[in-house]
Task: inverse folding
């Protein structure tokens, strides 16, 4: 099966060779295919995430990386249990639901209650204190697909903040329309948070078609009731860890370039888009950047653990490496569709470096954006702590939130041609920044 995957991928890459420069090796595809096939879903803190760390160490060593190691830490994870939902009135309808990370479990036998519809998160915020006592809140939204994924921030607040707000109004439970853009009957999971002083309540997400169903019934004005069974729960002191490896540069005095992805995934699928492909992209590009001679700077690869439930790997990396200088950080964690834009956080003194990067990417149709690069989740803490320079290679996110955190995040969704375009773009950037002899700094 593995050979079939590789043959199909390489065939596609060869067919696209006139459009994409660069060697059509299979490192990125092999990592993506093998991690999703041999390990599968890798929930934070789980036995499968531990297997993934062992797998990653063996693979990175086999590829020629040095100083390959696991840097362990512990997390409060989330262990999924039985989950069902059914509208019991006014029209009995089974719903497709998944618990949100850190949901509290429902009582034994489930939770039956009135379902109160809120068209937006702001509408929930405006509800009177105590008005939801004993009830289940439903939070709707109108997220749409965008190339840059910009709708995720504002509409994703319904998942990140909504359950805690509902709990504060007295709700016994909360259900949201999945934070996604598809119309498949697949619910999207994802973490939620409970600020200090907030008691967690059962929290789940229904598929978007089921969210539409609830909206239509709500518009009739008829009272709704729901039965929820969500038996997942938080579990403390679960083992996790980061996998770190290096390709040493020729001048060890120069601070390294840090490139990152995350190794864990949600449990509903095998995490191909989110984020096995990212690990394949950065690793293949780091290796290709060595072609033609060892660069000046070390390229350090971070396969972070426990990103999905709270970016714990990124925080652990920043703590463990706080005393080590870094030059620049990058991350790939937005699927595997083509890179279309590049953004920077570089000092004015680094304008020549920026210009070289723009020139290197222009032949691929990748244009410079006007916004300041921020990096990804797993490099965010070290960027903030050391005020690092950043280059963001923005991938096309038009279909990303069709797949994000769903049972559909599987290998067949990866387009080998677009995956290769990512590797070529990343390689072009790494060849430039890893050979920059001067200071690389962020804008003031």
Result:
């Amino acid at each position: 099966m593995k050979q079939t995957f590789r043959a199909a991928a390489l065939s596609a890459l060869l067919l696209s060779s006139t459009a994409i420069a660069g060697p059509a090796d299979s490192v990125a595809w092999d990592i993506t295919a093998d991690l999703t096939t041999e390990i599968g879903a890798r929930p934070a803190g789980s036995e499968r995430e531990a297997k993934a760390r062992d797998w990653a160490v063996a693979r990175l060593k086999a590829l020629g990386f040095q100083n390959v190691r696991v840097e362990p830490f512990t997390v409060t994870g989330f262990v999924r249990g039985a989950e069902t939902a059914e509208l019991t009135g006014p029209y009995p309808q089974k719903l497709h639901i998944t618990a949100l990370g850190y949901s509290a479990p429902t009582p034994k036998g489930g939770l039956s209650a009135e379902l109160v519809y809120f068209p937006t998160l702001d509408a929930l915020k405006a509800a009177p204190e105590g008005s939801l006592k004993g009830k289940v809140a439903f939070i709707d939204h109108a997220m749409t697909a965008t190339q840059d994924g910009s709708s995720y921030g504002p509409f994703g607040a319904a998942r990140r903040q909504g359950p805690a707000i509902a709990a504060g109004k007295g709700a016994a439970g909360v259900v949201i329309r999945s934070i996604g853009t598809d119309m498949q009957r697949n619910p999207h999971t994802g973490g939620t948070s409970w600020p200090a002083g907030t008691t967690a309540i059962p929290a789940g997400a229904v598929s978007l078609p089921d969210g539409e169903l609830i909206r239509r019934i709500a518009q009739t004005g008829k009272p709704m009731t729901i039965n929820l069974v969500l038996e997942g729960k938080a579990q403390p002191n679960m083992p996790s860890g980061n996998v770190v490896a290096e390709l040493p540069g020729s001048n060890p005095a120069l601070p390294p370039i840090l490139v990152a992805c995350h190794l864990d995934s949600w449990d509903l699928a095998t995490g191909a888009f989110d984020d096995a492909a990212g690990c394949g992209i950065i690793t293949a590009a780091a290796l290709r950047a060595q072609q033609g001679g060892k660069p000046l700077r070390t390229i350090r690869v971070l396969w972070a653990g426990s990103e999905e439930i709270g970016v714990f790997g990124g925080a652990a990396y920043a703590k463990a490496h706080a005393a080590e200088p870094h030059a620049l950080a990058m991350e790939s964690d937005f699927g595997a569709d083509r890179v279309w834009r590049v953004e920077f956080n570089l000092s004015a003194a680094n304008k020549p470096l920026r210009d070289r990067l723009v020139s290197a990417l222009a032949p691929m149709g990748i244009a410079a954006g006007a916004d300041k690069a921020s990096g990804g989740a797993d490099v965010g803490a070290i960027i903030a702590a050391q005020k690092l320079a950043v280059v963001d290679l923005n991938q096309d996110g038009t279909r990303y939130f069709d797949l994000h955190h769903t049972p559909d995040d599987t290998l067949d969704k990866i387009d080998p041609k677009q995956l290769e375009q990512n590797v070529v773009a990343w390689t072009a950037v790494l060849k430039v920044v890893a050979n920059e002899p001067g200071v690389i700094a962020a804008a003031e």
Notes: The radius of gyration is 23 Å. The CA atoms of residues 369 and 384 lie 21 Å apart.
